[in-house]
Structures are given as structure tokens and as C-alpha cells.
Amino acid sequence: MTLPTISQTISKGEIKTTVNGKGDTLVIMNLEDAKFILSDLLQYEVTDSLLNIYVERDSLNTEKIILKDSIIEKLNLQNSNCKEIVTNLEEIISNKDSEIVLKDDTIKQQKKEIRKQKFLKFLGLAGSVILPILTLLILL
Amino acid sequence: MFKSKIDIKTIFILVLGAAVILLLLFRPSKEINTHEEEILILKTQNKVLLQDNDSISTINIELMNDVVILEEDVEEINIKLEDSNKEIVKLKRKKNEIPSNVIIMDANDVTNHLADYLERRN
Question: How do residues A95-135 score in pLDDT, each as one tens digit?
Fold first, then answer.
């Protein structure tokens, strides 16, 4: 069935209903109005699809935020662990320093003792030479 | 003259004096403190600290692996978001084109589209 391109009798914004001979109720309107309604309907349909995508995006963004929060939490934990490692290493360095101080003290004592022993060795050697000679000189 | 002054008593005194001096010089030296116990304690502490650090490093490696997995998940979401962005642009363009497409329709097209719409709706 071919429909007329332009409605002949009904004006824009006007809608009429009529019942034809077969008993069907017909809604009559201007073609431009029908186009207007069709355009709105199609746009609403697309808007519905858009809404669904926006809802999906919202859910994806929420998921992303949760994941990012989780990443931040883990990185914070890692950071605090690294700080703990640094603290431990500083303590190790401090312990090593103390160890060095103690060993330095031991070395100092040992050096002193070595110097003393060298002096005594010298005196012992000198005494072992001088005393017999002196004794001999005195006795003779 | 020298000989006459030194008698056996003097020699005895000199020998005794020398012995006293030698005894003083060769007296046992005080023991050197090597701080072995303190050093051992410090070394034990360091060992424990190093073990702690190893444990923490292991935990950090696990955390890093978790972060990598999470970042991959985020990347997947980003791809989906990018796709949805493209879809939104496409739909917006389609929505903007609707009025101009409808305006050039004839009565048949309008009727068919309305019928299609009603069919989709049902």
C-alpha cells in the first residue's frame, strides 16, 4: 500500500481517531508529526543504549577505583616494608660501627702490649749482656 | 780503689736490686680485653636483622607480583572503557543523525520504522 507523502486535510499538532468500515480504530495525524514522534522514539532508543553503556562504564570505573585502591594499599605496605629494611640496615651499620670501636680498642691494647713487650725484650737482652760484664768487672 | 769499696754485701744488694727490677719489668701483663662476647652479641643481632630483611624482601616481592597482576586487571578495564567510549561516540553520532534521517523519510518509511519500533518493543 502506498501512503501519501503529505497529509492532505489534517494539520500539524492535530490528531484524530476514526473507525473504518472494518471496525478498526485509526489514529490520524500529520506526517510531519509522525516523523517527529518517530524521531523522538528512535532517539530515546539510542539514549537507552547510551544509558546502559554509561551504567556499564560506571561499574567499570568503580571496579578500576577498587583495584587502584588495592594497588595503593599494597604499594604503601611495600613502602613501609622498605622503610623497615632501611631501619634494620641502619641498625646493622650501627652494630658494625660498635664492633669496629671494640676491635679498635683491642688493637690499641695489643699495640700497647706489643710496644711494652718490645721494650722488655730490649731490656732483657741489654741486661743479659750488661749484668755479666758488670759482675765480672766488679769481681775482678 | 774501686775494688776495695765493693764487697760481697754490695754485690748481693746489686743482684737483689736487679732481680727486683727484672721482676717488676717481667711481671705478668694484664689480659687484653678482646670484647669477644660483645662482638658475638652484635654479630648475632646483625644476623637476626639480616634474616628479618630477607623475610621482608620476600614479602615485598610477593606484593610486587600482586601489584603487577592488579595493574594488568586495570589495563583490561582501561581497554573495556576505551571500547565503551568508542561505542558512546558512535551512539551519539547515530542519535544526532536520527532527525536528519527521519526528515527525509516518506510516509512508507515512517510507517515501517514505527512498526519496527513496536516490534522491537514487544
Answer: 999 999 999 999 999 998 899 889 888 888 888 888 888 88
ipTM of the modeled complex: 0.70
Q: Please indicate whether, in this complex, the C-beta atoms of B26 and A4 are within 8 angstroms of each other.
A: no
Q: Is residue A52 part of a domain?
A: yes
Partner-chain contact A81 B63, CB within 8 Å? yes
H-type alpha helices, chain A: 31-139
CB contact under 8 A, B32 and A47: no
**Rounded Cα gap, residues B34 and A107, in angstroms:** 8
Q: Which of A125, A43, A30, A75 is nearest to B98 (CA)?
A: A43
Task: List pLDDT tens digits, range A93-105.
Answer: 999 999 999 999 9
Contact A42 B42 (CB under 8 A): no
Instruction: Count chain A–chain B contacts defined by CB atoms under 8 A.
Output: 158
Establish if A37 belongs to a structural domain. yes
Q: Report the predicted TM-score, pTM, of the whole model to 2 decimal places.
A: 0.71
Q: Which three cell numbers stand for residue B11?
A: 754485690
Note down the domain range covering A19.
Answer: 15-139
Name every chain B residue with its beta carbon within 8 A of the beta carbon of A131: 18
Number of domains in chain A: 1
